[in-house]
Request: fold
Amino acid sequence: MEKLPEKQEGFDLKKSPIREAYIILGATTPLELNKLYTEQDQLLFISRKWDYDEKDQIPNRIKDILENADQIGLTEEEKEWRSEILWFWYHHAISCANWKRDKEKMKLFSEKALEYQDNNPNILTRTMFFLAHDQIEKAEEWVVSKIEDPDHDTATEIIANYKKNGFF
Reply:
């Protein structure tokens, strides 16, 4: 068994309901948990090996721990990063469902991603939600309203690809 990191300033990992996630990633703070999770996620996602059905993949293990944890014992910072990690997992699950040609899962995952998105400014999640639900006009209106967003061009491309080829 991996050794639990020492107690941090005002933060005791031994008491955290999600300590198993810290251990798996070797993280010592909520911010570091997010950083290390993102690194693991990106390794799999960029190579298109990311798969919500592969229970042993680290992103899936972390997602399960975070979703099943008792939130009452989480610090405010842990709650914020928990939501961010879960949003990111569901955000990528939408794309994975597209790769697998599973529109129902795309719908489900896009709904869950929006539940966890909180203050994250990413416009792609809502764009994919609209498209997964065949709401092309709403997707276009949404993206037009976000012209200054850094992901505007990507969202526009997603819509153009959807119009040309559908999701699959």
Observations:
- Residues 1-103 form one domain.
